[in-house]
């Protein structure tokens, strides 16, 4: 079965980015946010992002209009009923996600694939909260979703081959490169990336170098597009802390244990770009 109509639940950075990618590649998109105002502001954000691409000459104006025309917003979960695929991208909280999957299972058509964009939580726990564990998988996009080419397709023990093949085909139709990964915390990218990010905070905490020099070192020394502290600000320090905690919970490896400075910054609401300040100040 080919995915034509995609539901997206959650209005954060990832939900908006995935909506943009899916609509641009020709899918009908239904965006659901708990509050109508948030859903409306997502569309405003999408329109702004597409307008920027038109300005840069990367997108034709007709294509921009067609993309916007493919997106509808709603605060009613019931409107996801006819979707071929629903991607959940809400807060990284297992009980909130389980509750949502249970509701989606009751609402959505029998053929609908229920997917999560979680970066670390066990997909199997969500699958088992539905009456269709064979139609549940992870479809993990990276931030910023419109730019990053990778999508991890996460196969819980219960998923059938058709579900995984359809999820892969959807990622490809979005112009992304899928890789299939086992359902364990961090999958491939975050299992490798987050010990590195955590240790960058440790170096800063130990006073080994300034934040600017740590970032300059990794850009210049490893050819990374941005340094680790700037990347933590992009991902969000609260999200990063949740990812490290989930990794530590699963493997009990010291490298996954969040360093104290990261925790303190989250307590201080220094969350990165989303709050205007993290390691760097974004107000200026
Ligand atoms: N939406 C759409 N387009 C965007 C964008 C966004 N949010 N951010 C940047 N772009 C586009 C820009 O328009 C620009 O396009 P053109 O060159 O065609 O004009 C291009 O991306 C490059 O952007 P900039 O010139 O502004 O800046 P840059 O060259 O420094 O690139 C970056 C920005 C793409 C973010 C780059 O620094 C990068 O790749 N950083 C690493 C990001 C990364 O590692 N992401 C993974 C995070 S981990 C994760 O997501 C997993 C998880 O579960 C938490």
General description of the model:
With 284 residues, the protein is of the alpha/beta class. It has helices at residues 13-24, 36-55, 61-69, 94-107, 123-127, 161-173, 189-205, 211-222, 228-235, 237-251, 260-267, and strands spanning 5-9, 28-32, 71-74, 85-88, 113-116, 136-141, 150-155, 177-182. It has an eight-stranded mixed β-sheet with strand order 3-2-1-4-5-6-7-8, with helices on both faces. Helix 4 links the parallel strand 4 and strand 5 (113-116). Helix 1 (13-24) packs across helix 2. The chain starts with a strand and ends in a 17-residue tail after the last helix. The structure holds acetoacetyl-coenzyme A. Residues 49, 56, 58, 119, 142-144, 146-148, 189-190, 193, 225-226, 231, 235, 239 line the site of acetoacetyl-coenzyme A.
Tell me roughly what share of residues is in helical segments: 40-55%
- N-to-C order of helices and strands: EHEHHEEHEHEEHEHHHHH
Structural shape: globular
H/I helix tally: 11
Weakly predicted, low-confidence segments: none
User: What would the average pLDDT be, to the nearest integer?
Assistant: 95
Distance between the termini: 49 Å
List cofactors, ions and other ligands.
Answer: acetoacetyl-coenzyme A
Main pleated sheet: 8 strands, mixed
User: What's the count of strands?
Assistant: 8
The largest beta-sheet arranges its strands as 3-2-1-4-5-6-7-8
Residue share in β-strands: 5-15%
Rg for CA atoms = 19 Å
Structural class: alpha/beta
> What is the quaternary state of this protein?
single chain
């Amino acid at each position: 079965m080919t995915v034509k109509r995609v539901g997206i639940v959650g209005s954060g950075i990832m939900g908006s980015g995935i909506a943009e990618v899916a609509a641009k590649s020709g899918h009908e998109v239904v965006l659901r946010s708990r509050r109508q105002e948030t859903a409306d502001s997502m569309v405003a954000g999408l329109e702004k992002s597409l307008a920027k691409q038109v300005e840069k000459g990367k997108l034709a104006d007709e294509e921009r209009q067609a993309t916007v025309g493919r997106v509808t917003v709603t605060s009613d979960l019931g409107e996801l009923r006819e979707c071929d695929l629903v991607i959940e991208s809400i807060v990284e909280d297992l009980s909130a996600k389980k509750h949502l999957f249970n509701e989606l299972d009751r609402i959505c058509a029998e053929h609908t694939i229920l997917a999560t964009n979680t970066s670390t939580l066990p997909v199997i726990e969500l699958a088992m909260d539905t009456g269709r564990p064979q139609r549940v998988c992870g479809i993990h996009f990276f931030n910023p979703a419109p730019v990053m080419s990778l999508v991890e397709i996460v196969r819980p023990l219960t998923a059938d081959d058709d579900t995984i093949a359809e999820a892969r085909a959807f990622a490809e139709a979005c112009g992304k490169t899928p890789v299939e990964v086992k359902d364990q915390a961090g999958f491939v990218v975050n299992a490798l990336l987050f010990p590195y990010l955590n240790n960058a905070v440790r170096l800063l905490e130990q006073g080994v170098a300034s934040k600017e020099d740590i970032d300059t070192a990794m850009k210049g020394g490893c050819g990374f597009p941005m340094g680790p502290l700037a990347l933590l600000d992009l991902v969000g320090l609260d999200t990063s802390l949740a990812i490290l905690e989930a990794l530590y919970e699963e493997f009990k490896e010291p490298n996954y244990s969040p360093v104290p400075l990261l925790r303190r910054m989250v307590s201080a609401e220094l969350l990165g770009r989303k709050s205007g300040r993290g390691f760097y100040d974004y107000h200026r």
